[in-house]
Specification:
The protein has 377 residues and is an alpha/beta fold. The chain contains 14 helices and 10 strands. The chain is globular, with a radius of gyration of 19 Å.
Amino acid sequence: MPISHLLTASFYPTESDQSKGEQLFQYDRVEPQDIGHNSEYNYDFEKESLKSEHNSEEEQLLLIDTDGGTEDAWAIFMGLSAHQHSRRVKIVGITCVYGTTTVENACVNVSRILNTVNEKNVPVFKGMGTSMVSKFEHSDSARFNGIDGFGDSKLPRLNYNSVVEDEHAVNAIIKLAEMYKGKLSVVCLGPLTNIAMALKMKPEIANYMKEVFIVGGNTEGIGNVTACSEFNFYVDPEAASVVLESFSYCPIYIVPYETCLKSATSSYTWRLNSLGKMRTKEMDLLNKIEGKILDKYRDSWSVHDAIAMACFINPQVMKKTENFHCSVELHGNHTRGLMVVDRNFLMQKPANVILIEEVNISLYQKMLIWAAGGPSY
């Protein structure tokens, strides 16, 4: 059955979307310094709103929602490379959520990332510390990213309260969506609790966002936390369901688990030699927090979260996409959190998701090198 009659015009990429990745970013490296609390700096949404009126139409305004794990670090470093060394991307905020670790640990980890590249102007907001309905309970022995989300690498203590804003992340999402109405892109790297709560509190912000990129869900029932469920959706299936059901005109791009496995996986050798031997501040932190993972898993290497960030920054990374109506299974012992893809359009509902099914691995790897402090791609 042809699907064009089920798609809205906003689902088709525009010329400006296609050109997002054409510019090569040129920059000089900067030396990191410690981030300390600046008593004069308190995020002023009204002041920032006035600044936004002078933004170039070409500037991509980005909000990152993260649960602060090792894979998130790669994605955030990539976003920061674009933010600091180009005029095309501006990160307007990072919101933290419970997922791979506690929301407090997520705030600490994000603070470490910002500290590494001497970034003091991106506000960080602490968000939801549990799921919308039932709390996901970790098995400490099975935590892929360690208890602290950063591989339990015994990094020096860091007081995240000195760099985190007083505003709650859910309120910040609402205010940023209103401030940058029609211009705000959101990259979601963890469970969708913060975004879903913001949509519940103020449903109209669904019409204010430009685009949403999500790492989560699955398309073939391949799970990484249960037999059929992917981690980010399984931690808070209700939140995932709210997000997929709330947007009508804003495109939702999803990087499902199977795409990460089949299309965006690199070799262990490439990780060790092409990335691991780089002498940069970014790579020093990444090597430390991935140390236990690299010791345990040597068949291949993949950082799923960075794929979504790469696709946002450079749409040419998306080699193949398809449009479907997707929903989330909220029941079942084995299928709770499963993303249901209506491939035969039996539900007769408009497509609400753009599935990223294949990635340009060569371009993506160049962007990983760039994220780790290497040359522009």
